[in-house]
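Q: Please design a sequence for this.
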């Protein structure tokens, strides 16, 4: 039986930050996701207590940590966690982040790369555009922040059930009580609004990964039936970053560390305890081919509509001019010459061979 977890609170950047800690050894820091807490790691932390110093903080605005009137932007969360690492003198850490916690972990790579020995991303945000409708609706200005607090307890139960998380009844009751604390809805709304809009996620790690001189070794873990963030984001990340391996959990939702704690713990241990592991490196040709300027949701809708109208409108070719075959917006067009041969027109931006849409 593993020893009971030690609980601590420290004042970090005007936030009373709470964390649990168990074991001794190389630091293993576990970051939870939105409306979650340190409890999400209760089935994983004991597996590493004999060989690691396992620390599971509650992000600001979550769990037993404080809920200040702050921006709750992704960069702010990472700044608070970076100051917490400084306060505890933690270096050469293995960092694991789930969902939004994965986004915070990625941002810490941008700002504290020298401290991070290895990075584990579990169904992480910040790796693609798609995200659940519920989180996109949470980004509507003012709705959750002003009206959501009375519904946080019920919303927690519904959200956990929809995401497929296997919480014990006592732990779920405790999580609901935490999210019922005043300020929880404000923290959720502001956190979501900084990274998500109605079109989906709009902060992507791969857009800035090139700023890091040397990325740490990275492992990605995902459930194949994740209803919150699709596993396709994990596949794209493995395609963009050489040296990254995706571990897929069958018949699993958004919480592989809770739904399959044994296999997850074994896969994570193989990663963090391996004597050596190659650092992740950008496959720049794929990344350049896939990256497109971010456009607003409405602009994309208008562009599609205009392209559809151009396709539908009949157009007579001028006498003696080359005929251009009409195609829907974004499709490749063929140009017919006077000798009857065809040649390809310009491909749309981002459609270079081998390109992957990373939005």
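A: Design:
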């Amino acid at each position: 039986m593993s020893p009971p977890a030690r609980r601590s609170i420290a004042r970090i950047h005007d936030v009373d930050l709470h964390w649990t800690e168990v074991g001794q050894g190389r630091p293993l820091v576990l970051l939870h996701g939105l409306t979650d807490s340190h409890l999400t790691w209760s089935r994983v932390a004991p597996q590493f207590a004999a060989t690691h110093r396992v620390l599971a903080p509650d992000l600001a605005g979550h769990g037993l940590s404080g809920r200040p009137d702050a921006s709750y932007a992704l960069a702010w969360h990472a700044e608070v966690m970076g100051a917490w690492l400084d306060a505890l003198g933690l270096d050469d850490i293995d960092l694991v982040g789930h969902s939004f916690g994965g986004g915070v972990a990625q941002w810490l790579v941008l700002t504290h790369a020298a401290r991070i020995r290895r990075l584990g991303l579990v169904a992480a945000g910040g790796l693609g555009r798609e995200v659940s409708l519920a989180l996109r609706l949470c980004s509507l200005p003012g709705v959750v922040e002003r009206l959501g607090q009375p519904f946080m307890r019920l919303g927690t139960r519904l959200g956990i059930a929809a995401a497929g998380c296997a919480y014990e009844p006592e732990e779920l009751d405790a999580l609901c009580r935490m999210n019922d604390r005043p300020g929880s809805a404000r923290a959720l709304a502001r956190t979501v609004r900084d990274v998500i809009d109605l079109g989906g996620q709009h902060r992507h790690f791969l857009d800035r990964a090139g700023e890091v001189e040397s990325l740490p070794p990275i492992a990605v873990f995902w459930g194949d039936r994740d209803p919150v963030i699709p596993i396709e984001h994990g596949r794209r990340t493995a395609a963009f970053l050489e040296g990254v391996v995706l571990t897929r959990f069958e018949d699993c939702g958004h919480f592989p560390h809770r739904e399959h704690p044994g296999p997850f713990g074994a896969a994570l241990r193989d990663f963090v305890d391996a004597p050596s592991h190659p650092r992740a490196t950008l496959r720049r040709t794929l990344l350049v081919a896939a990256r497109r300027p971010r456009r607003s949701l409405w602009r994309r809708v208008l562009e599609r509509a205009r392209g559809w109208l151009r396709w539908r409108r009949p157009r007579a070719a001028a006498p003696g001019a080359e005929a251009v075959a009409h195609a829907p917006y974004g499709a490749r067009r063929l140009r017919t010459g006077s000798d009857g041969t065809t040649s390809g027109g310009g491909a749309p931006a981002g459609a270079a061979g081998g390109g992957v849409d990373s939005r």
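Q: Thanks. Anything notable?
A: Residues 297-312 form the longest helix (16 residues). Confidence is low (pLDDT under 50) at residues 288-293, 310-359.
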